[in-house]
Amino acid sequence: MPKHVWKCNYCTNTNTFYNETIIHETQCAFNPDNKYCYTCSNYKSDNFWIYGEGYVCTKKLNIERGEDVGNCEGWDKK
């Protein structure tokens, strides 16, 4: 029997509860309103092939903090 599922507008997260989906969307790391690295134009691949692809901030800001906390002061819209 089919089940209604709600999907985040910014990532692949799904949920059977609408309210939980809305809460997730407000906190989602891929929601540009939260200004996480993933949605920033300064978040670029470093193309360092020995260890695999990694990412750097072209403004040389702390990516670990940006990915964990969001609301980066150097965030620029893609």
Write the layout of secondary structure elements.
Elements: E1 6-7, E2 14-15, H1 18-27, E3 43-45, E4 55-57, H2 63-69
Could you give a short description of this structure?
With 78 residues, this protein is of the alpha+beta class. It is built from two helices and four strands. It has helices at residues 18-27, 63-69, and strands at residues 6-7, 14-15, 43-45, 55-57.
Spatial shape: elongated
Count of DSSP H/I helices: 2
Strand content: 5-15%
The neighbouring-strand order within the major sheet is 1-2
Structural class: alpha+beta
Q: What is the mean predicted local confidence, pLDDT?
A: 88
Give the terminus-to-terminus CA distance.
41 Å
Low-confidence stretches: none
Question: Could you explain the architecture of this structure?
Answer:
With 78 residues, the chain is an alpha+beta fold. The chain has two domains: 1-34; 35-73, no CATH class. It is 22% helix and 13% strand. The protein has two helices and four strands; from the N terminus they run E-E-H-E-E-H. It has a two-stranded antiparallel ribbon with strand order 1-2. A two-stranded antiparallel sheet has the order 3-4. The longest helix has 10 residues, at 18-27. The termini are far apart. The mean pLDDT is 88.
